[in-house]
Specification:
Blueprint: E1 4-8, E2 12-17, E3 23-28, H1 30-41, E4 47-54, H2 58-69, E5 77-79, E6 87-93, E7 96-102, H3 115-122, E8 127-131, H4 132-136, H5 140-155, E9 159-163, H6 174-185, E10 190-192, H7 195-202, H8 207-217, E11 221-224, E12 231-235, E13 239-243, H9 257-270, H10 275-289
Parallel strand pairs: 1-4, 1-8, 2-6, 4-5, 8-9, 9-10, 10-11
Antiparallel strand pairs: 2-3, 6-7, 11-12, 12-13
Helix pairs in contact: 1-9, 3-5, 9-10
């Protein structure tokens, strides 16, 4: 199996606030952000690809060109002539972000409607990453088809990573969100939950509660993030341990904290690091990211 990381989901037009109060346009989205950080960390003999559906209009062309310009393979981008890409705007208050979305005509909502394309896109990847947002934008039938495709890829030897990134407004209620998250977890080897979201959705009291749920779903590695608190890491091989958070002098923008963590963790695992070293490197990267504006921080790799 080739050295290939595929991150799959929705990349969107991003409008992010600048220091002057204006907005800068960029391209971002949770699974794309993860691919972007992984590309900067992985050596050249690894291919990092982004899988999604986009339109054939000018902004879709610009997005595809941007992705390719960042060194990310675009052969897994499917083009749909009757749709375009979504847009979101970030609002910041004391470093915490909120989002406004315009994604009704997003082509990415159709990324699992062509089973042949999906099978070809997933086939032969050594590592595949997706999130609960990837699942949330799909119809229930497409969600099941997508996860069935991941299960087949996993059976063929792909390592599957799942970030339980929750956006309640994308789901048809809390029960649908719980069902979707557990469907995603059921086909994943690595689960990357955030404890505050798990508490809100499931009522977890401790990280051990979160770990137990995803153990039962079949994950072999679980990494529970907790904002500025410690990361709790469990693996079937080594049990549970904790790593203290990397100190941060000033939080500027938490937009891609979890996405950069995922990119750092998966990239270091792919390079042969231990789970503990991968988690520590991911925490250090996320700590740097949240001290800058925007989802993607090129200056960290200058």
């Amino acid at each position: 199996m080739s050295k290939s990381l595929l991150s799959i989901g929705e990349c969107m037009v991003e409008l992010s606030p600048t220091a002057s109060g204006d907005y800068a346009r960029g391209f971002a989205g949770d699974t794309f952000n993860t691919a972007w950080y992984a590309r900067r960390l992985l050596p050249a003999d690894w291919t990092v690809a982004y899988g999604s559906a986009i339109g054939t209009d000018a902004v879709s062309d610009e997005m595809a060109a941007f992705i390719a310009g960042e060194g990310i393979d675009t052969t897994a981008l499917r083009r749909l002539s009757d749709r375009t890409v979504g847009l979101y705007m970030i609002s910041l208050r004391d470093g915490e972000r909120s989002f406004s979305y315009w994604r009704g005509q997003s082509a990415a909502r159709m990324l699992a409607d062509d089973p042949d394309w999906l099978e070809a896109t997933l086939n032969g990847r050594s590592l595949i990453h997706f999130s609960a947002i990837t699942l949330a934008i799909l119809s229930p039938d497409h969600r099941r088809s997508f996860c069935a495709g991941l299960a087949r890829a996993r059976a063929k030897g792909s390592l599957i990573a799942f970030d339980t990134n929750l956006r309640p407004r994308l789901w048809d209620g809390a029960d649908a969100m719980r069902d979707g998250v557990m469907l995603g977890a059921s086909v994943a080897d690595i689960v990357l939950p955030s404890f505050d979201e798990e508490t809100g959705l499931w009522g977890d009291q401790t990280a051990a509660d979160t770990i137990a749920r995803y153990q039962q779903a079949g994950a072999s590695r679980i990494v529970v993030k907790d904002g500025g608190g410690p990361v709790t890491l469990w693996s079937a091989a080594h049990g549970t341990r904790q790593h203290d958070a990397t100190p941060v002098a000033q939080i500027v923008d938490t937009t891609a904290a979890g996405d950069s963590f995922a990119g750092g963790f998966l990239a270091h695992l792919a390079m042969g690091e231990t789970e503990d070293r991968a988690a520590q490197a991911a925490m250090a990267l996320a700590a740097q990211v949240i001290q800058s504006r925007g989802a993607l921080v090129p200056t960290l790799f200058a």
